[in-house]
Amino acid sequence: MHAWPASDVPALPGKGRDLRIHDTATGGPVTVDPGPVARIYVCGITPYDATHIGHAATYNAFDLVQRVWLDTQRQIQYVQNVTDIDDPLLERAARDGEDWTGLAERETALFREDMTALRMLPPQHYIGAVEAIPGIVPLVERLCESGAAYVLDGDVYFSVEADPHFGEVSGLDAEAMRLLSAERGGDPERPGKKNPLDPMLWMAAREGEPDWDGGSLGRGRPGWHIECVAIALDHLGMGFDVQGGGSDLAFPHHEMGASHAQALTGEYPFAKAYVHAGMVALDGAKMSKSKGNLVFVSTLRRAGVDPAAIRLSLLAHHYRADWEWTDKVLDEAVARLARWRAAVSRPDGPAAQDLVEEVREALSNDLDAPAALAAVDRWAALQESTGGTDEGAPGVVSRTVDALLGVAL
Fold first, then answer.
1. What are the tens digits of pLDDT across the range 178-210?
2. In this structure, which CATH number among 1.10.10.10, 3.40.50.620, 1.10.3720.10, 3.40.50.2000 belongs to the domain 19-286?
3. Which residue intervals of 346-392 are DSSP H helices?
4. In the predicted model, what is the mean pLDDT of the chain?
5. pLDDT of 28 above 90
6. For the domain bounded by 306-405, which CATH number is listed?
7. What is the rounded distance in angstroms from the CA atom of residue 128 to the CA atom of residue 406?
8. HEC string for 70-108
9. What is the pTM for the complete model shown?
């Protein structure tokens, strides 16, 4: 599966700062020191309703991570999956009387278009669950052989007790996990499971649903969590730098994925930092496909909204914050974009080297994009009120906003 084209990232004078970011597993900030090659895995879409503003906010956060690392002159190995086979996709296709593969391909293509328009840097490896199945099956077989998995009526389950570190990603107690498991695709009430929290690794073939050759597992399709584990281990290995996604993935998805990988390899940890973006609401409720309260990037683009303004609307909120999309949010972003473009259109302006360092410092401090925007706002206001004599300043500002915030002025 191919990703989308990369936009150029201008080089800035000097060198950026190492990233300090909030780690869900420890509950506090950690300094991520990747070495010369930074490794990041971000969980991708289930392609049946893309791309809404909640998606965009999540991928914007991890785009900023990449931009901070690039500014420190590191290389990046970025991997993202597409869950192109899963119950919600099949349910949507059945509801609309559409072939599930056509639905997945169309929504994935739309997602690529939106990511390109928003100037999100693409992953080096963009992998669909279906294409990963040949690598998933041997992992499930290994878990069975080691006793970390068991069969229940033809389905294969992972035993969470096989990983002594289970629970350390989310930090939740058993009852909270059980409630979230029921809400987020698990089946804690299924009779016969060793532990109600045990997640499915391989679903035996169901009549009327697609299935694949699972070798000794029989025909079927993979569970959600093992999909990402197989892809991450294949392209990044254990101990990669950042596991990313929305805050609703901390449990069960990232918790279970970490345990799968740790049980498979005997190594710890799966990822050095677990980083989660907040949720975006609309009309008082979290944007979700089930509720249907979604604002789509493609709809905004078709209405003539500049993608740079959409991106600024995301950057105006700290990535870990839960926030609400409103017309005011977008109007403020449109106005900010106009001010910035007017400011950099002049032939000279106030000196901008301090601004570069302010933006660097803000982003290195847990991706504090609102503080970075405020720094650019101050420069633009000074440009408007008093101007300056530095002929290179507008270009420096424009390149800084492009390189570090992904906004083309």
1. 999 999 999 999 999 999 999 999 999 999 999
2. 3.40.50.620
3. 353-364, 369-385
4. 96
5. yes
6. 1.20.120.640
7. 26
8. HHCCCEEEEEEEECCCCHHHHHHHHHHCCCHHHHHHHHH
9. 0.96
